[in-house]
Specification:
Blueprint lengths: L21 H44 L5 H13 L8 H13 L1 H8 L1
Helix pairs in contact: 1-3
């Protein structure tokens, strides 16, 4: 709720006519904002892909080295969803997809992360 001030008007003030060059500047600002939003989304997506690959790789390594079975994935899914309740993607099925993803693209990501 916005605070009320003694001199606040109940109706929006009329906009003054835009000065010369304003329309072009606004278009430029909108373009720059949109471009920044797209770059940010791509960056987040790239980080999540790497994270999912790393989770899958970790699952594969632990299953191979420590003889963990698939029940560990179910436990991990519960624990991750509990730790990150607002984040989606940590179901048992998705963790298995991450494991498969890491197995298929092992060399590609290891080369990128090195």
């Amino acid at each position: 709720m916005m605070p009320t001030f003694a001199n606040a008007q109940s109706t929006p003030a009329k906009l003054l006519p835009a000065p010369a060059g304003y329309a072009e500047w606004l278009i430029d600002l909108k373009t720059r904002i949109h471009t920044a939003q797209q770059r940010a989304a791509r960056s987040v997506n790239q980080e999540l892909v790497v994270l999912y690959w790393q989770i899958g790789r970790d699952i594969l390594e632990r299953q191979a080295q420590q003889s963990w079975g698939t029940k560990v994935i179910e436990r991990l899914a519960v624990d991750l969803r509990t730790a990150f309740p607002d984040m989606k993607g940590f179901s048992t099925r998705n963790l298995k997809y991450m494991r498969t993803f890491a197995a298929i693209f092992a060399r590609q990501f290891e080369n990128q992360l090195a």
